From TrEMBL:
Protein name (Swiss-Prot/TrEMBL): ComF family protein
Similarity section: Belongs to the ComF/GntX family.
CDD domains noted in UniProt: PRTases_typeI (cd06223)
Length: 250
């Protein structure tokens, strides 16, 4: 009920842009462009945790992008699921090999004739989902899937990961502490191993990458269960260089 009421209120009574504060807009055109205007690109945290698959991000975690992600995740601005999902879809396409998901060359790209991609969201702690009143990661995965299908790329969302043990809040932890915090914390839900082995390659999806520890742990859990991890896609990445297009302009 909480999430439903927030979503209706956001549609009927649009307030201000979640990115820059402009009135009467869920997310203005300028902030939408900041989410994916430069195109998704490969990002690497430093240090890079062992087992981290190739990660592609739609934007850097700063300015209006940071504001929009926090508004969606922490303040329940559910109307942002559509533009954030579209940005995530761009990162998924980049993982799959190009704008249309076709093979672009190099290891890991989607092979012609393969089954539809499986988008597997990295789960948040149950207590965090309960406190927020919605599952931000799954909502973004579904938004990305809608955008990808509309563009002709067949995908499915499979929320197969679960937390096997409690983990501490990652905020404020360093890279080494984050790796230790999530090590062995994820597994797959009972009965989903066949799905992972039978269906197409997996793209892990999340809203944000900081150290990459959670994505590396998710890749480990999926791989042990028999899934083939193609890569990971995030809306934004923290502490990474700008995309090549921005570098060329500087």
């Amino acid at each position: 009920m909480y999430g439903w009421w927030q979503e209706i209120a956001g549609l009927v009574l649009p307030g201000e842009c979640a990115g820059c504060g402009r009135p009467r807009s869920v997310l203005c055109e300028a902030c939408r462009a900041a989410l994916g205007g430069s195109g998704a690109w490969r990002v690497r945290p430093d240090p890079e945790p062992a087992g981290l698959p190739p990660v592609h991000a739609a934007a850097r975690y700063e300015g209006p992008v940071r504001s929009a992600l926090l508004a969606h995740k922490e303040r329940g601005a559910l109307g942002l699921a559509e533009p954030l999902g579209a940005a995530l879809a761009g990162a998924v396409r980049s993982v799959a090999g190009g704008p249309d998901g076709g093979r672009r060359g190099g290891g890991g790209a989607l092979e012609a004739g393969e089954r539809p991609l499986l988008l597997v969201p990295v789960p948040s702690a149950r207590r965090a989902v309960a406190a927020r009143g919605h599952d931000a990661g799954r909502r973004l995965a579904l938004g990305a899937a809608r955008a990808l299908r509309a563009g002709g790329l067949p995908v499915a969302v499979a929320a197969v990961l679960r937390q096997c043990r409690a983990v501490a809040d990652q905020a404020g932890l360093g890279a080494r502490q984050r790796r230790a915090n999530v090590a062995g914390a994820l597994g797959v839900r009972m009965g989903t191993e066949r799905l992972l082995m039978r269906e197409g390659p997996v793209v892990l999806v999340d809203d944000l990458m900081t150290t990459g520890s959670s994505l590396a742990e998710a890749a480990r859990a999926v791989s042990i269960a028999g899934g083939r991890v193609l890569g990971a896609a995030v809306v934004a990445a923290s502490g990474v260089p700008p995309p090549p297009a921005e570098k060329n302009r500087n």
